[in-house]
Amino acid sequence: MIEMGKIKLGILKNFLNNLLFKLLRKKKNIKLGIYGPPNAGKTTLANRICLDWVGEKLGKVSRVPHETRQVFIKEKVNIKLGKGGLSFNIIDTPGIATKIDYEDFLKFNLTKAQARRRAKEATKGVIEAIKWLDDVDCVVVVLDATKNPYSQVNITIIGNLAARNIPVLIVGNKMDLKRAKIKNIEAAFPQYPVVGISAEKGNNMEEFYEKLYEVVKKC
Amino acid sequence: MLTLKFIPYEEISHLSMDAKIEKLLEIVKQNKIILMQGRLTPEEETYLIQRTMESINKKFKGVELCIVHPQFKEKGVLKQLRNFFINALAGNSQGITIIGPATIVKKIERDPEKIELLTKELKKKRR
Predict the structure, then answer these.
(1) Residue by residue, what is the 3-state secondary structure of B52-105?
(2) Nearest-CA neighbor of A146 among A179, A184, A170, A187?
(3) pLDDT value of position B127
(4) For a FRET experiment, which of A185, A217, B86, B125 has its CA 20 to 30 Å from that of A117?
(5) Which chain A residues in 47-86 lie under 8 Å from chain B, judged by CB atoms?
(6) pLDDT tens-digit map of A80-96
(7) Where are the domains of chain A?
């Protein structure tokens, strides 16, 4: 009898511990990393989310690659979905690249000094983005749907997140452009949820939030 | 002139992550294109990018990278079991890794069927 009582008490203790853990976890802000190659529209998406739910933008966007050269964080972004909701800290990271040449920026009418400074800051930004991989709970990988998804940077980012067991949602951005092909991204990464959006125009954001909710539940 | 350097898996498999990446970067900085047997782990790939960024200077602009690894998509239980054992035994020694200096390799285009390595036209020095 005493043994049975001890077992029942143990089960009850575990149940309460789990309940407490889940309640505390729900209250925590989920750290949502936004990753991807340069110029895929990471900051445009971060701005869209912040505009939708906070009413203000997070960062500056530009057609010149590596506009975001440091990590930007927006805390306590509350997203309401049906009866439920999610609370995020959004971490917008610089684009990850394997090469940075200041001469590439000269095509965008930057002076040599500006281009060199931008390149130097961009290399530091990539390192910072990689270091943040240790601190995110789940990740939205933003890819340009008009480009070939089989780039090594995309594969490395997604492979790294898989190795760390971090839940991933892949976003095919720029779907408002004619040459965008979401099927290419779906074929390249069949084991991940994929959603096509236009962060700039705000197209298909409802589906994005629904899929994000499904992914975040795994955190 | 392009120089290709072949690295067998055994040559680097025993090295630590640090030593492995430093060795690869050292070769790439000599303007050689590496053809390495096997693949890097996801952690090593990320570390390669990080170390590449830390090494960028006037001469070294970064790398172009491509890792090809066989993906088994067979569905039968026996075939999946066979593939599991192949993976367990061969591990990262399967596949091939190409790493080239960005000053020479403009782009490595990959789709599931083929790999295209586009090189930069080297400017001729005027006498």
Answers:
(1) HHHHCCCCCCEEEEEEECCCCCCCCHHHHHHHHHHHHHHHHHCCEEEEEECCCE
(2) A179
(3) 45
(4) B125
(5) none
(6) 877 678 888 999 999 99
(7) 29-216
Domain borders along chain B are 3-119
Of A98, A160, A162, the CB nearest to B64: A98
Instruction: Answer yes or no: are the C-beta atoms of A29 and A76 closer than 8 Å.
Output: yes
Closest to B57 in 3D by CA, of A29, A119, A30, A64: A119
Q: ipTM higher than 0.85?
A: no
| Cα separations in angstroms, A44 against A57, A190, A205, B69 | 9, 25, 13, 33
Identity (one letter) of the amino acid at B21?
I
- How far is the C-alpha of A149 from the C-alpha of B122, rounded, in Å? 28
The DSSP bridge partners found for residue A16 are none
CATH architecture of A29-216: 3-Layer(aba) Sandwich (3.40)
A159, B39 Cβ separation under 8 angstroms: no
Kindly determine whether residue A150 and residue B110, on different chains, have CB atoms separated by under 8 Å. yes
| Dist. CA A133–CA A96, nearest whole Å | 12
Chain A residues touching residue B110 (CB < 8 angstroms): 148, 150-152
Q: Is A204 left (phi over 0), alpha (psi -120 to 50) or beta?
A: left
The alpha carbon of residue B101 is apart from the nearest alpha carbon of chain A, in Å, by 9
In sign, the C-alpha dihedral spanning A87, A66, A147, B108 is negative
Q: Which of A85, A66, A72 lies closest to A26, judged by CA?
A: A85
Q: What is the pLDDT of residue A128?
A: 95
- Which residue from A minimizes the CA distance to B49? A98
| pLDDT tens readout for residues A135-185 | 999 999 999 999 999 999 999 999 999 999 999 999 999 999 999 999 999
